[in-house]
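Hi Y.,

Following your request, here is the sequence exactly as I used it, all 184 residues.
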Amino acid sequence: VTNGGKTTLAEKLKKMLPNCDIISQDDFFKPESEVETDERGFKLYDELDALYMDEMVKSIRNWMKSPASSGVVTEELQNTCDNLKNVEDIYILIVEGFLLYNYEKCKTCIFGKANIFLCSTRIYQPADTPGYFDGHVWPMYLKYKNELEENASNVVYLDGTKSQEELLSYVYSDIIQELKKLRE
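Below is the corresponding structure, written out as tokens. Let me know if you'd prefer a different format.
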């Protein structure tokens, strides 16, 4: 679901990981004037048509062609990374968003061990229009979640009732394990 903590988690991971960059789906929303409105007057931001997805895929592919020149600055390594040989030559791209795997062209350019869903409370300022979450956001979340589950394997669900620190620790540990496997 939108506003569930994906960007917050990605930003915290970026600070902890060497040579890490983020491409966020939020950066590819169309202007409000180009987003469709339904019969109730709700802007349909929770649909693929509200995003410039081709531009996002292009950004991902450009990063993959040349991650070292992407502007990623090597951060001071965490103690847990110290035992990884040549970790400085590994580049990590976190691609975060709520409809990544529902867009056909993304499926061919995003690699990873697992798809991760994070669902939490949704708090916007200003608040959502009454009925927007129940009438649009949640139904779209369920639609795209079901679509993903039909077409993807290895989906890992994170418990949005856990603290941000617990979720961060879990995902960070998983990434470190994957980096160790790359080094073996």
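The two ends are 36 Å apart (CA to CA).

Thanks again,
Q.
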